[in-house]
Amino acid sequence: MKTETTVMNTEQNTSWLKQNYVALTTIWIKECTRFLRIWVQTLVPPAITMSLYFVIFGSLIGNRIGEMGGFTYMEFIVPGLIMMSVITNSYANVSSSFFSAKFQRNIEELLVSPVPTSVIILGYVGGGVARAILIGIIVTMVSLFFVDVQIHNIGIIALTLLLTSTLFATAGLINAVFAKTFDDISVVPTFVLTPLTYLGGVFYSLSLLPEFWQWVSKANPVVYMVNGFRYGFLGVSDVNVTLSLGLLVGFNTLLFSVAYYLLKTGKGIRS
After folding, report:
1. Which residue among 22, 88, 210, 218 is least packed, with the fewest CB closer than 10 Å?
2. Which residues contact 224 (CB under 8 A, 6 or more apart)?
3. Which alpha helices (DSSP H) does the chain contain, by range?
4. What is the pLDDT of residue 255?
5. Cα Rg of the chain, angstroms
């Protein structure tokens, strides 16, 4: 009797995993197909924008600034610019996609389906992460035309990239849940993400700031993401790398819980 029960439970678990795997990959493929189909709008602009940053800040202004943290200014800003593009695109992908589904009133069909809420979140976030990683690779390839990219710790690079893109993809989903119009999904990137990114140590080292402003800057979460990513490339950081990774894990856990609660209760979706 116990053997039969065990076999039945195993079959149920296998069936559950198979069903969720199909649902997860379906949502993920849909999200990837969405941004790949309009690659001229999603993949080309970041490459052009970052090329301008490399030319203006790296080549023209960088020659006048000199070294930063023991590296040329171009070498110093490359990790920050890659991370900036990752943050922007992971957020934008999920916020626009999920809000479009909500606006077209087809997200309800997904929510009432037997697909678990966590699978829905992972599917949408996975699409944002895929776009962010692809953009990160493209920007890195563009940077090779301007500077020899160093790699100090590939593991830190990959982990920071994955955690950061997951974090902002989840944040984009939360933004989309609360958004009432298409204009609402641009409020956070314009008034929150842009200031935090530019003040997050992308273009400068915190050591250049007075002590008081160094402490103020450390209240900016983007500082830890940029510096953790920079450590992976150059081996230098203005903050503790272990702390950076710990904060990323904590923020991811928090935002995933918030997103799960919102979708599970239907807040901002069900009228």
Report:
1. 210
2. 239, 243, 244, 247, 248
3. 2-37, 39-42, 44-53, 62-65, 73-103, 107-111, 117-143, 154-178, 187-188, 194-198, 211-217, 221-234, 241-265
4. 97
5. 21
* Bridge partners of residue 68, in order along the sequence: 71
Question: Which structure tokens are listed for 55?
Answer: 């030319």
E-strand stretches of the chain: 67-68, 71-72
pLDDT number for residue 113 = 80
CA distances in angstroms from 267 to 18, 68, 113, 179, listed in the order given: 29, 47, 17, 11
The whole model's pTM is what?
Answer: 0.90
For residue 235, give both structure tokens. 């081996």
Alpha helix ranges (H) inside 38-57: 39-42, 44-53
Show the tokens assigned to 126.
């996975």
Locate 131 and state its tokens.
């776009």
Q: What's the rounded mean pLDDT across residues 228-255?
A: 95
Contact 105, 270 (CB under 8 A): no
Closest CA to 165 of 130, 191, 199: 130
Percent of the chain at pLDDT above 70? 93
d(CA 179, CA 123): 20
C-alpha of 268 from chain center: 23
CB 69 within 8 A of CB 205: yes
List the one residue out of 9, 161, 20 whose CA is nearest residue 90: 161
Distances (CA, A) of 2 to 9, 12, 13: 11, 15, 16
Mean residue pLDDT of the chain comes to: 88
* For residue 2, pLDDT beyond 50: no
Query: How does DSSP classify residue 194?
Result: H
Most confident of the following: 9-13, 135-139, 177-181, 201-205: 135-139
pLDDT tens, residue by residue, 50-64:
888 888 877 777 777
Spatial contact of 130 and 165, defined as CB atoms under 8 Å apart: no
